[in-house]
Amino acid sequence: MTNSDNEFSGKRVLVTGADGFIGSHLAEALVHTGAEVTALAFYNSFGTCGWLDEIANETRSAMHIELGDVRDGVQMRSLAEGIDIIFHLAALIGIPYSYVAAQSYVDVNIHGTLNLLEASRTGMVGRFIHTSTSEVYGSAQTRPICEDHPLHGQSPYAASKIGADQMVEAFVRSHGIPAVTLRPFNTFGPRQSERAVIPTTIRQMLDPACTKIFLGDLSTTRDFTFVGDTVRAFLALGGAANAEFGKVYNVGTGVEIKVSEVVTQLGDITGCNKPIVSEETRIRPEHSEVRSLVADATRLTNLSGWQPQTVLEDGLSRCIDWWRERIASGRQRRNNSYVR
After folding, report:
1. pLDDT in the model for residue 217
2. Which of 197, 20, 234 is nearest to 108 (CA)?
3. How do strand 221-222 and strand 257-258 relate by DSSP bridges?
4. Do residues 266 and 114 touch, judged by C-beta distance below 8 A?
5. pLDDT by residue (tens digit) across 176-185?
6. Domain 5-191+224-254+294-309 sits in which CATH superfamily?
7. Which of 82, 92, 277, 339 holds its CA 20 to 30 A away from the CA of 109?
């Protein structure tokens, strides 16, 4: 536990999107800091709570799990009552789906964020941590990308997140909401959906039923950050006494790498030599693809001392170990794109 983690002991914390990839890791970490965690999971008729169903029973029982939907403003006001800190991660995030269901992204990502902001305002929440995405920058015009880089929505998903980010900034200016925005670059790690390149590559490499590996465009470059480092960034920003409300803070390693090179590393670690096939359905429209992303996280580092701790190869090895265990046990993968 770091000094910033001690800031959460006894605090009443709400995590939206807690059933998702990053959200489940963050909810776990907050429990370990001694926070009183309310974990919002998207309601469904199956009675499941996403990745919260698979965390250790001791940790899961230490949090209060609520089923609901950020699109319900009345429920959000009820959940925010008496809360010290909100970590808002719930969002629709699958880029391909945003091409065919753009209104859903506006409803969840913009209106859902608005509901949480209104709930924070009426409930006098002490701090609101909003989750953005590096996709809002579009392809890098300057490298590395700092928070002042122009915003360029190259997909309906990115446009909806720009709208949500701007809503947060507007509420800080208009209503004095104590809100900040964390903007992670490409986070990877255990529990990530196969909509992302690293988990889908690993699963196909390890799955004996796959004779070929089907991927999309491998020529793009990204800044891959291990999920544990992203979670530490959330904690750092949530506990920083001098965080500047209305500001955006990038989270990334500052290391730019071609996706094809990551796939090669995965093949080397797994010993897989299956042929790689570029599948047309996995490629974004020409003007929608973000060609390059690399973070400048200096602002967060200067504020809190945050630094990435996990190098790419170590993170990839941990993902592979996780997938080996899942495949060996016969458990099904999850592909829920509603939560981050």
Report:
1. 86
2. 20
3. antiparallel
4. no
5. 999 999 999 9
6. NAD(P)-binding Rossmann-like Domain (3.40.50.720)
7. 82
